[in-house]
Amino acid sequence: MKAYDTLDVWKKVFFMSATVEANAHFLRVHRKRSSGELSESSASSLSPDPDNLLGRRIQHTWREKGNVTKWKGTVLERLTMNSSLYMVKYDGFDCVYGIELFKDNRVSNLQLLTEKVVNNKIKVPPGAEELVGRAVEHLFEKEGGEKNEWRGMVLSRAPIMTHWYYITYEKDPVLYMYQLWDDYKDGDLRVLPESENKHLLPADRKPGEEPESLVGKQVEYVTDNGLKRTGLVIYQVPAKPTVYYIKYDDDVHIHVYDLVKTT
Questions:
Q1: What is the pLDDT of residues 52-68, one digit of tens each?
Q2: Which segments of the chain have a pLDDT < 50?
Q3: Gap between the Cα atoms of 114 and 58, Å rounded
Q4: Taking the C-alpha atoms of 234, 156, 117 and 233 in order, what is their torsion angle to the nearest 10 degrees?
Q5: Which long-range contacts (CB under 8 A, 24 or more apart) does 18-25 make?
Q6: Residues with Cβ < 8 Å from 37, sequence gap 6 or more?
Q7: Which residues form a coiled coil (predicted)?
């Protein structure tokens, strides 16, 4: 990864995968699940206010490549590095998306819904380990009933919908969101010991060491097929300070990388 500022002496080593660079879809399905976060829908809507969207239910039309679709979701965050950028969890999809709701010309008919988000209390299984900052093995069920293992790292509790967790995966290093304790209870989530999966666990800070923050840095990345992508480092993960969220200009997904210094 090359950057316009100090990022030229850093490299990206966390969860690099060709599937990310090839993905050009707006929404991707990882595993369809019952959302559990909604109250009963209401047909009425209110005019949206950019300063009053956090924690609110929205719907809008999305126009791209001649296709028109309608999406409903929950606004989770508004980024301090770019106040136009909102992080949204859309119904029926497991990724968290970064959308400039009031600037992106693909978004139209944005409405603020009156339905409320139901934030149920987390039911932590007795004797369970802490999840945040841990490498895990997550089982996903395919259409035929076969289960597929995905290794990843739990990044944090999600905002607003705090019974959910942010997580990313070795096979697909973008930001996902799941109710992980449900999977833990069902035997579909296993916390990995550090010795078993060190490459998924970035090195922690040494005592007294304050890592240089890369938030706000403009980055440039050239894919294997020569495609140049530019973006912005938008967030540093508190549980793992070398791990950052990157929002590329040509993609609504939030990419998750470990950025380590090379010199």
A1: 999 999 999 999 988 99
A2: 1-11, 13-29, 32-40, 43
A3: 9
A4: 10
A5: 18/224, 19/171, 19/172, 20/172, 20/173, 20/174, 20/253, 20/255, 21/223, 21/224, 21/225, 21/227, 23/251, 23/253, 24/251
A6: 74, 89, 117, 118, 119, 161, 164
A7: none
Domain ranges of the chain: 2-25+212-261, 45-113, 135-200
Q: List the structure tokens of 152.
A: 């990843």
Tens of pLDDT, residue by residue over 175-206, are 999 999 989 988 999 999 877 666 666 665 56
pTM over cut 0.85:
no
Q: Was domain 45-113 assigned CATH 3.30.420.40?
A: no
